[in-house]
């Protein structure tokens, strides 16, 4: 096996949404029927690229990786093909809002090298029927760690936590801090994530989040808030 860093040689675009398939089909003759979490080389317009059937926004689509020198051409091709379907460019804040609604964790803030998959809500991705690096360090999957990463919905949809705000019980005791947060525009709610003691991780638990010096009521919710069955991702 040879490992080679090709980061600088590739461009990357995410094309996601209910019309993503129709847009690509209008400019590609390739078979797009490959399933979620699979990848294939396809050609869009005149641009060859890798198409990865993944998403970070909770909608069906692809990450597209052309050679860097063809990135602008692929962009122009997609923008032109997507115009009849209402395609609009979106940046990081749009992606962050959608991933919060879908409950996707953010590396470096929600999860780090110090968090375990069970407490992070990622135990579904662990298979214990084979050996792997780090297996011995995992906690018991039936108990997890002392804390759990929790989804919070703030009572005031206009109060948005950005990160590191204290999370308190009604008694005033600080029990955690916000790891990430933002406006969930599709759902019309303010969403945040925080590590809380396991005893407080049950949906319905009442807490408050200090946003710019103001205590805002919040509630622990089961996640994901958007498309909990994952039907849209696999459409």
From TrEMBL:
Pfam families per record: GCV_T, GCV_T_C
Annotated Aminomethyltransferase C-terminal domain residues: 149-227
Full protein name: Unannotated protein
PANTHER family: AMINOMETHYLTRANSFERASE, AMINOMETHYLTRANSFERASE, MITOCHONDRIAL
Gene3D superfamilies per UniProt: Aminomethyltransferase beta-barrel domains, Probable tRNA modification gtpase trme, domain 1
GO CC annotations, alphabetized: mitochondrion
InterPro entries registered for this protein in UniProt: GcvT/YgfZ/DmdA, GcvT/YgfZ_C, GcvT_C, GCVT_N, TrmE/GcvT-like
GCVT N-terminal domain ranges (all copies): 2-129
